[in-house]
Amino acid sequence: MHFVKMQGAGNDYIYVNCLAEEIENPQETARRISDRHFGVGGDGLILVLPSEVADFRMRVFNADGSEAQMCGNGIRCFAKYVYDHALTRKDVLRVETPAGIMRLDLFVEKGSVKRVRVNMGRPRLERKQIPMKGADGRVINEPLKVGRQTVNITAVSMGNPHVVIFVDDVAAAPVAMLGPKIENHPSFPQRTNVHFVQVISRREATQRTWERGSGETLACGTGASASLVAGCLNEKLDAEAVINVAGGKLELVWGDDDCVYMTGPAVTVFEGDWFDREE
Question: Residue 279 has what pLDDT?
């Protein structure tokens, strides 16, 4: 199976062209190929597929084999993949995902995509849209009991569930300790992504992410979008801000049309052929 490894702000995925390849069990393939010791290594597996309603269809499988509805960094690299591999010559794409059809604007230099702007869609803020158990309404700076401690959370869905926690020092945030506990908290029937965010100014924040199904990652595009929205809802951030992640910077805008727009890098790391170790 031929693959290409790509990364957007350090969020790395393995891409397979399923217009030419066939994967019978993508969940198991994702678990094996994402392993950083026995596989290629990555935050997950992304499949390039045909679509009847858009230019292409994207499926994302986390490193544990679970399927994600959307991946902001992953879809930027998806756009670079299909353009750089001459599957399209369009610089504006529509990509079908389980979270809806996403518009992508490609910034091309010398025949190769360098950056991509993604319309991440409208944030979903009602509790049942996250989804999160409890009374109807929005979850803004709401206390959540996690073991013996209580943390204040803001919940946002960007097609997949996110919890944002504002902290004074993101470097000292207990990501590895609290992240998996909140991810698997009984309040979240589909589990959740968890983000620890330190506000630097009205137009800048730094984020660390515990990604559902993958653990701590260097970046999360839907998470950065959720962090911007949460920052606005808590009156900590303006509607346009830079979110710093471990792998770089993402430019976010919550537009007047209620959609969140994200711009960031897309980089090819290497490509090769995968021979399943159990064959």
Answer: 47
Does residue 278 sit within a domain? no
In order, the DSSP letters of 229-277 are HHHHHTTSS-SEEEEEETTEEEEEEE-TTS-EEEEEE-EEEEEEE---T
Query: What phi and psi, each to the nearest 5 degrees, are found at residue 193?
Result: -80, 150
Is residue 56 in some structural domain?
A: yes
What count of Cα atoms within 13 Å lies in the side-chain half-sphere of residue 9? 32
Identify the pLDDT of residue 278: 58
CA dihedral 230, 182, 5, 114 (to 10 degrees): 10
pLDDT tens-digit profile of 30-64?
Answer: 999 999 999 999 999 999 999 999 999 999 999 99
Give CA–CA dist 28/32, Å, rounded: 6
77 in catalytic set: no
Q: In the annotation, is 259 catalytic?
A: no
**What total number of domains does the chain contain?**
2
User: What's the DSSP call for residue 132?
Assistant: -
Residue (of 257, 233, 260) closest to 155 by Cα position? 233
165: DSSP letter? E
The answer on 167 and 80 residing in a single domain is no
92-124 pLDDT tens trace: 999 999 999 999 999 999 999 999 999 999 999
Catalytic residue from among 18, 71, 232, 259: 71
Type of residue found at 8: G
Name, in order, each residue with C-beta under 8 angstroms of 221's C-beta and a sequence gap of 6 or more.
8, 9, 11, 71, 72, 73, 74, 75, 76, 118, 120, 250, 262, 264
- Selecting among 18, 77, 220, 259, the annotated active-site residue is 220
Which residues of the chain carry a pLDDT beneath 50?
279
Rounded-to-integer distance, Cα 156 and Cα 215, Å: 19
